[in-house]
Amino acid sequence: MKKILYSFLLLSSATLFAQKNTATKFAVANDIVGTVDMFNNNNYKGSVQSSKAYKSATELPQNLKKFDYLADNGLVEYKLKSNQGVIDRMPVNELNAQFGLPADTPVLIDGYEFTNTKTLVYGDIINNAQVITSNGKKMVSVTTSRK
Predict the structure, then answer these.
(1) Average pLDDT per block of 10 residues along the chain, 147 residues long
(2) Signal sequence: where (predicted)?
């Protein structure tokens, strides 16, 4: 009986980690994914030249259509100042490499599935990363919240 209960709890926790965090609002700058919270942080506020918010995936311009799966809460496009230094970034397939998973394995970020593992993300959004099992497959799950 304990094994059944333990298995159920393990499966439930994996399912919870795979759910979308609807509080996350994604942002894109220079074709790199971040979060609005990251750009509102004092570290990057001075780096922003301008921003444009889109309320839904249907409003996205052509250059942002590839990020439509992140626009459940809208999407913000930031333009950074030209004198801005390089902000740490990485393709999500590097997360797979860090955890010993195949490079083409999708990665979950706050429950949003990044199937194109060459997508670049800002390193500052990665708060916690762990391997979970979702739909019978092992994948990296990242949470962005620092709360």
Answers:
(1) 46 51 87 92 84 94 95 93 84 96 95 95 93 92 84
(2) 1-18
Contact assessment for residue 121 and residue 35, using Cβ atoms and an 8 Å cutoff: no
Length of the chain: 147
Task: Please name the residues in contact with 16: beta carbons below 8 A apart, sequence gap of 6 or more.
Answer: none
Predicted pLDDT of residue 34: 94
CA dihedral 39→42→44→48, nearest 10 degrees, is 80
Q: Are 110 and 142 in contact (CB under 8 A)?
A: yes
Closest CA to 90 of 136, 138, 140: 140
Residue position matching structure tokens 């993300």:
121
Nearest one of 112, 108, 117, 33 to 76, comparing CA atoms: 33
Q: Residue 138: which residues within 8 A CB-CB, separation 6 or more?
A: 101, 105, 131, 132
